[in-house]
Amino acid sequence: MTRFFELFVGLRYMRARRRNHFISFISVTSLIGIALGVMALITVLSVMNGFQSTLRDRILGVISDVTISGPLHHMAHWRSAERVAVKEKGVLAAAPYVRGEALLVHGRYSSGALIRGVIPDKEKAVSDIASHVTQGRLTRLRPGRFGIVLGRYLAWRLGATLGSRVLLVAPGGMVTPAGFLPRLRSFKVVGIFNVGMYEYDAGLALIDMKDAQALYRMGSDVSGVRLKLANIDRAPHVRRVLRTKLPAYDQVRDWSQEHANFFRALKIEKTVMFVILLLIVAVAAFNIVATLVMVVTDKRADIAILRTLGASPASVLVIFLVQGTLIGLFGTLLGVVTGVLLSLNVTTIVPFIEHVFHTHFLSANVYYISELPSHLRWQDVLHVAIASFLMSFLATVYPAWRAAKTQPAEALRYE
After folding, report:
1. d(Cα 298, Cα 129) in Å, to the nearest integer?
2. Whether 314 contacts 403, CB under 8 Å
3. What is the end-to-end Cα distance of the chain in Å, rounded?
4. Phi, psi dihedral angles at 365 (to 5 degrees)
5. Are 283 and 391 in contact (CB under 8 A)?
6. Count of other CB atoms within 10 angstroms of residue 112
């Protein structure tokens, strides 16, 4: 029953009209500050999750979830490696590829490029490039036809369009009495893709795998096998399993290793933003300290009367802990609700604001992503709510302890 008494008195103090309206103002300010901080934290983390997911999807639209490659990008036993890989749990598809580098020339323009030899039908199963071909089709790559599919910016650099002829200069030419003769081959542009990542749109070109094998003198060998998984988060596990089943000289890498620095930077940036925005909640929590210190000063006589009626210092401590904790709890709940609603509606709210103010926050000419994405993770919401509530609770400890130390005789001396 004692605890119900303390809870009752703490709630009573929350609802009571105070003689000092400034204390009420700071209480409301503290609650609103916590709510705004929590709302900002949830919204920013959701937007950063959206950027990370969008960039990851675009990267994985070009690279594979898991890649098996031979030494020096030569693999003779690729068929057996493909059979082993597709039997592994979670592997949806596998496709061989040939990797090489070349200089592409069109008229008086030239540009270096990474050449990937693919089988169009199998490539569709392991990457999304086919769905990003804006002109032509990936299926126009056929053995012996010497067709090529260029990235959007690579085609722009070369001044090439659909149907243009580009000259591919491959390394490793021949030395003749007349001098060094590079290996040259004319290719017809049969497609142009745009995946939304400049790194690939400006430096990747696709040709048929058999044409690539002939161009780079690989015979029936390939550079490796690319895998598509049902769950990309299981890529590290699949990589470790395949390493035990494949020859030791084969290299097995997953998508997280291909761009390890990039994804690590995104994770660090998210952590830093969490800490920075948590300072907003900390400032509001410190306002709770100021509020309760003034409440304790304002209620010194009430505290003394409670003590003379038999209330223990622990009871007084709990009464003021309840009052400060409720401010933090209500502020956190309000921030969680508004933050979740804002995060779930960012994709509609931002276009509305852009329309009203006649502006565009993410110009497609500057940024890879022209829309503000959002991906709400309840784990982030839980972490933010717990951190906010704990900071609010800790902010109440000192004022409550100070109230518990109030001596009745001292408090009533001048009353």
Report:
1. 69
2. no
3. 31
4. -80, -15
5. no
6. 12
Q: How confident is the model at residue 1 (pLDDT cuts 50, 70, 90)?
A: very low
Q: What is the pLDDT of residue 282?
A: 81
Section 129-153 average pLDDT: 90
- Residue 137 structure tokens: 């089709």
Alpha-carbon distances, residue 272 vs 122, 280, 379 (angstroms): 41, 14, 17
**Distance, CA of 114 to CA of 118 (rounded, Å):** 13
Compute and round to an integer the Cα radius of gyration of the chain.
33
Q: What is the pLDDT of residue 125?
A: 87
Distance CA 367, CA 149 (A): 24
**Range scoring the smallest mean pLDDT among 69-83, 107-121, 168-182, 261-275:** 168-182
Give 110's strand partners.
105
Report the distance separating Cα 51 and Cα 57, nearest Å: 10
Q: Where are the beta strands (DSSP E) in 107-223?
A: 109-118, 133-136, 147-151, 165-176, 179-193, 204-208
Helix (H, G, I), strand (E, B) or coil at 174: strand
pLDDT > 80? residue 24: no
State residue 254's pLDDT score: 87
CA angle (317, 319, 320) in 5-degree steps: 70
Bridge partner list, 69:
224, 251
Distance CA 55, CA 393 (A): 38
Cα–Cα distance measured from residue 165 to residue 148, given in angstroms and rounded to the nearest whole number: 9
Query: Nearest CA to 289 among 383, 410, 402, 405?
Result: 402
Say how far apart CA 203 and CA 378 lie, in whole Å.
38
**Residue ranges per domain, the chain?**
2-57+263-412, 64-256
- The three-state secondary structure class of 84 is helix
Query: What is 237-305 written as a DSSP string?
Result: HHHHHHHHHS-TTSEEEEHHHHTHHHHHHHHHHHHHHHHHHHHHHHHHHHHHHHHHHHHHHHTHHHHHH
